[in-house]
Specification:
The structure holds 2 protein chains of 2 kinds. Chain A is mainly β. Helices cover 0% and strands 60% of the residues of chain A. In chain A, strands 2, 4, 5, 9, 10 and 11 form a 6-stranded mixed β-sheet that branches. The N and C termini of chain A lie far apart (36 Å). By secondary structure, chain B is mainly β. Chain B is built from no helices and 11 strands. In chain B, strand 5 and strand 6 form a beta hairpin. The chains are: A mainly beta, B mainly beta.
């Protein structure tokens, strides 16, 4: 069992839908990162959080330290959101297996 | 201006050869990393350097040797390449937040796809 688990592994949605991707971890962490990997391969950091909630545009990330769980939400999804979303925890630098999201027009 | 740049982006080589991938960051970060992404797209940390000092060295064959000439550069040298080394290798950097164990936001290079024939 991975120390960082994501669900679902694959997700398809219609444009405009609200999307939630989950990440659970079993190790102590100092922070949790949400990353986005585009079909072209590049990886971009979306959020780094150690408590509470962060919002950037249509993206919202939350973390519950007691439950060792984080969620990434995308409101009003768009085809350009199609990517693999990866959660990672530091300081052990362990990555989840990723969630492949496809948003159709 | 690219923040974290890796070269080359693509590398095709024969088994047994030695190759290097270079990484440079212009963000002034203290910490740099090498990650390997396998064919199943799973990312795994290989090495981490803080200010030219090795701080993480995961279970990686000793054919892989990182070299950090200064804190803006972390190169990866691979000896005696094997088929299983085929992967995408990502370099990244991050600032520190309040100490060596407090890693900040991660900034990734575009990746270097290595194919070993």
């Amino acid at each position: 069992k991975n120390e960082v688990e994501q669900s679902p592994q694959n997700l398809t949605a219609q444009e405009g839908e609200f999307i939630t991707i989950n990440c659970s971890y079993s190790v102590g962490i100092s922070a949790l990162h949400w990353l986005q990997q585009h079909p072209g391969g590049g990886i971009v950091s979306l959020f780094m959080l150690s408590s509470g909630k962060k919002k950037h545009g249509r993206l919202i990330a939350t973390i519950n330290i007691q439950e060792k769980h984080s969620s990434l939400h995308i409101t009003a999804s768009h085809p350009r959101d199609s990517a693999v979303y990866i959660c990672a925890v530091t300081d052990k630098l362990i990555f989840g297996t990723g969630t492949r999201l496809q948003v159709f027009p | 201006d690219t923040a974290v740049s890796q070269t080359p982006k693509y590398l095709v080589t024969q088994m047994g050869n030695d190759k290097s991938i270079k990484c440079e960051q212009n963000l002034g970060h203290d910490t740099m990393y090498w990650y390997k992404q396998d064919s199943k797209k799973f990312l795994k940390i290989m090495f981490s350097y803080n200010n030219k000092e090795l701080i993480i060295n995961e279970t990686v064959p000793n054919r892989f040797s990182p070299k950090s000439p200064d804190k803006a550069h972390l190169n990866l040298h691979i000896n005696s390449l094997e088929l299983g080394d085929s992967a995408v290798y990502f370099c990244a950097s991050s600032p520190l937040r309040g100490g060596p164990s407090m890693i900040g936001e991660l900034f990734f290079g575009e990746g270097s796809r290595l194919t070993v024939l």
